[in-house]
Amino acid sequence: MEELEIKLKEAGKILRLTNKTFKFDPRLGEGFFAANYFLKSRKIVEENARGHIVTMQWFQRTEDAMLCGVDEAIALIHTFAVDPASLKIEALNDGDLIDANEPVLKVTGKYENFGFLESMIDGILARRSSVATNVYRVMKVLDGNDIFSMADRQDEYNTQIGDGYATYVAGIRKVSTDAQGYWWGGKGMGTMPHALIQICGGDICKASDIYHKTFPNEQVTALIDYNNDVVTDSVKLAKHLGKTLRAVRVDTSKSLIDHYFDDKDTSGFDPHGVCKELIFALRKALDDNGFDYVKIIVSSSFNAEKIKEWVKLKVPVDTYGVGTSFVNNMTVGFTGDLVMLDGKGEAKEGRRNIPSNRLKPVPYPIY
Questions:
Q1: pTM for the full model?
Q2: Helical H runs in 181-229?
Q3: Which of 15, 34, 74, 152 has its CA 20 to 30 A from that of 199?
Q4: What is the pLDDT of residues 174-218, one digit of tens each?
Q5: Residue 251 in contact with residue 190, Cβ under 8 Å?
Q6: At CB < 8 A and 24+ separation, what contacts does 194-201 make?
């Protein structure tokens, strides 16, 4: 566990993202995305209580979470705060593992210069840290298995760039779109969708042939559940392609039961979707027919709990494809609080300035 934490922390610190990385919408500085009561507070303070020095502190309530979004939040402050050079910023790093109630970011300065950015910083930290934490929890249970992020199709497309970076911070390098790799220099990868097989009338061999004809320097990784007959179609395709076949991907819907089970007793388990019994049968069939080199990729409704169980049971999976549980699962929520006023503790009941020797000063600017 300690070795994994060190590896993940180092992965998150390979890059220090700066103002030049992010393409911020200029309306962020105009208050378009800010909660309206923060804008009202800014106006009230500017007109009636200017010049007070406050400290705002951000924290969350999840144990063993992975922090992400700090660089983005700092860049936001440096871009849109008034007189950002006058602000004192202390922060942890993207990729740090954090506990509940631990401060991850502190900003000290005049409230009217940065306070209106509070809710946007909350959102950045919450989204990025949730994705990083979800990925981190999967990475902890993989035990050497490969993994591929398919999160592009699970949310609105504008989320891909930031989510892809959070995925990278947590240790994943294989993503499905160029957008997911944009901030860290990665490129999307993939093979064939079900649509290609459909265009070929359900003929998996024909779909693989024209794929290989178009991309002759690539081995074929084929989606194999189109006809809901994974074992039969995998052996058939392996005989057809030979060493050109790299892997088959099983993506069976949870509403279906594969035809492999048509003549078998399934009373002792749930045969729906991508079940472990199907994958054991697929591996055996491939091996028995001399195709032990063909790898097995699984996708569809995989999360940390299911992967942990499968790894423990040694289900013969080479690569897991995960999407929904990475990005449609907000596991970390951040709160920003004012905790200091003109050098003295001042906060609402239940909040206080929490000392931390992990927070480090952030210079201005970070280019």
A1: 0.91
A2: 194-199, 204-214
A3: 152
A4: 999 999 999 999 999 888 899 999 999 999 999 999 999 999 999
A5: no
A6: 194/223, 194/226, 194/251, 197/223, 197/226, 198/226
